[in-house]
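Running this now, will post back.
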Amino acid sequence: MSLEGVTAEISRGEALRRLAVLLAQGGVEEPAREAAALLRVAAALTSRDLVAAPEAPLGACAERVAEFARRRAAGEPLARIEGRRAFWRHEFTITPDVLDPRADTETLVEAALSAFAARSGQPLRVLDFGVGSGAILAALLGEWPCASGLGVDASASAAAVAAANFAALGLSDRARTLVGNWDEGLGGAFDVIVSNPPYIPSADIPGLARDVRDHDPLLALDGGGDGLDAYRALAPAFRRLLAPTGWFFLEIGAGQGDDVAALLASGGLSVKTRRRDLAGIERVLGGTCA
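Update: finished.
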């Protein structure tokens, strides 16, 4: 099925059918669901529009629909194509410079909110290492109205994306960004330190799903030979920067929990909570200074 078949004259219903065939040929999983999502985004339609008027012609948006379909069939995630990703209660602009925030990472937000439920109205100081799009920090600040945050990233382009997202969400007065290498040059005491660091072993990156391998920035994926390089850098940073009653929350890769916990323990930190994501995979470690 060629993209020439997606024209202004065909109906929305026929467009859905043709898009599903095209995406299936491209190896996209659940092509019918993906076709509907793509058509809604590219044609600015709602699910109700597609159900109520499937016979309506595709019209002037056909070229945009065809372009989105070409990119999705080639493996680019729809959120990348649109440049937007929903996370927690917000939507974030994403660019090729930042990791696409995924639902699994909401486990980290949930862990932090649970641990600080009794302190949610306090003026907490929050630090996010590897801030990327700003999704984690913005989610927390949205739930903690008196908190302020600092997002650090080694990529100036990523830090700029985070700053723009903070501004769009009305958080610029409580969130700022810093370009830097982990905790280099940082001081002060933070009540909450969070991070979704790179944790994929270098040798595993070529075998990742193409939507991750080809579209997420390598800087946000590559965790070194064993995938633990970032945790080695973060352990002493946590120890130095955590307030006496502060907590850290870390996202980890599948099967890394015990190794990361041991690494943290050797650095004077104690894991107090371990959380699994919706798939049942251990995804987050939280803890304090020992």
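Residues 123 and 181 are 26 Å apart (CA to CA). More later if anyone needs it.
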